[in-house]
Specification:
Elements (H helix, E strand, L loop, with lengths): L6 H17 L2 H8 L7 H10 L16 H15 L5 H14 L2 H13 L4 E4 L14 E5 L2 E11 L7 E8 L2 E8 L5 E7 L5 E14 L4 H34 L1 E2 L2 E2 L4 H29 L5 H25 L11 H12 L4 H17 L1
Parallel strand pairs: 1-4
Antiparallel strand pairs: 2-3, 3-7, 4-5, 5-7, 6-7, 8-9
Helix pairs in contact: 1-3, 1-4, 4-5, 4-7, 4-8, 5-6, 5-7, 7-8, 7-9, 7-10, 8-9, 9-10, 9-11
């Protein structure tokens, strides 16, 4: 299968790389990490003005129509610079709404995502261990809508978002619901994560919600797995290149560290992990954009992101020696992001367990 990017996606990559490189400087990263919501608002504005926030959404909803492929190109470039903007939760939510929302939901929610004026995030994880039957948060009918009760953990970039997609269980099975972040019954608690994203712990006490259509749960989970993998691929690549640059400049015993075979092998292992991650990622992307079942491919890609991504950022930091533990040196951010991403939706062990369940179900 040919995963070569077409002309449009190459242009997206070039534009995204330029913007992230220009804005994600060491001083701006430090300032964003110390801000109230942990977001670089000027970078977010630049992404809006360039049209990149609408790159994945359908043209009829005001986007560019480049689908999951456009999203992943954008996210890889973000990962390379560890730029603190909530792109993946906003666009995962947007694509889920575009695929499963009513016409009213699409008209009211998607323009705000494209224009950057109404951020949307996703609440997919819970404090209790994952239940194969679905989320523990419950949804009960309430007139034309629903009321949600339960607790959600690590809602990414929660503060500053206007809406949140919440996974919850009904009597007929699990689904996805749209809730205003400021609605009655929404209780938020700030939670700083490993990557310094300001996430939120969310308690829902009969919060009013609207349901998305059938199939939204699978879509939002598969898109999240693919989006996180795309960010991780960029993070791992950025960390590897940073290590390579450092090793080529740092000398020991009268020659660059990059000429030592042990260091070369470490970087070669990083390269192999990243390439494997990308192959699995773009396999899943091709299935999603074709409208085919991508759960197995998405879980496989996510496992590589968890395992291979974490291996890579660990090696990259190790190759920096003592300076690798200095939080004033940029490599530490790659390790923190890689660690956070590798545990999203449960981590490598959870992905393998779920992949096994999916394959066993398909075989039975």
């Amino acid at each position: 299968m040919d995963f070569t990017l077409g002309e449009e996606l190459e242009e997206v990559r070039g534009l995204a790389r330029q913007i992230f490189t220009d804005y994600a400087t060491a001083d701006r990263l430090r300032a964003a990490e110390q801000s109230e919501n942990g977001v670089d608002e000027e970078l977010w504005k630049a992404l809006v003005e360039s049209g990149l926030l609408g790159i994945a959404l359908p043209e009829e909803d005001g986007g560019a129509g480049l689908g999951v492929g456009g999203l992943c190109v954008l996210l890889e470039e973000q990962g390379r610079t560890v730029a603190p903007v909530p792109v993946w939760p906003a666009l995962v939510a947007g694509l889920t709404i575009a695929g499963h929302g009513t016409s009213e939901q699409r008209e009211s929610l998607l323009p705000g995502i494209v224009e950057g004026t109404a951020r949307v995030t996703v609440a997919l994880e819970e404090f209790a261990p994952a239940d194969p039957a679905g989320p523990a948060c419950s949804a009960t009918p309430d007139g034309d809508g629903w009321k949600l009760t339960g607790v959600k953990a690590v809602v990414p970039s929660a503060f500053g978002a206007r809406y949140v997609l919440v996974t919850a269980r009904t009597e007929d099975g699990p689904g996805v619901f749209v809730v205003e972040t400021s609605a009655p019954g929404m209780v938020w608690e700030r939670a700083e994560t490993t990557s310094r994203d300001v996430a939120g712990s969310l308690t829902l006490e009969g919060a009013p919600a609207q349901a998305l259509g059938e199939g939204a749960l699978r879509t939002v989970l598969d898109l999240t797995r693919v989006a996180v993998t795309a960010v991780q691929a960029g993070v791992a690549d950025g960390a590897m290149r940073l290590a390579g640059s450092y090793l080529s400049e740092r000398e020991q015993f009268g020659r660059p560290l990059a000429t030592f075979q042990a260091a070369q092998h470490q970087l070669a292992d990083c390269y192999i992990e990243i390439e494997a991650m990308k192959v699995c990622l773009w396999k899943a992307v091709s299935l999603l954009d074709a409208g085919e079942d991508a759960t197995t491919a998405a879980l496989t890609a996510k496992w590589w992101a968890d395992e291979g991504g974490l291996n890579t950022v660990h090696r990259a930091q190790h190759l920096h020696g003592g300076i690798g533990v200095d939080v004033d040196y940029p490599v530490h951010r790659y390790f923190l992001w890689g660690k956070q991403l590798s545990g999203t939706l449960g981590g490598a062990s959870a992905d393998l367990a779920e992949l096994g369940d999916v394959l066993a179900g398909a075989a039975s």
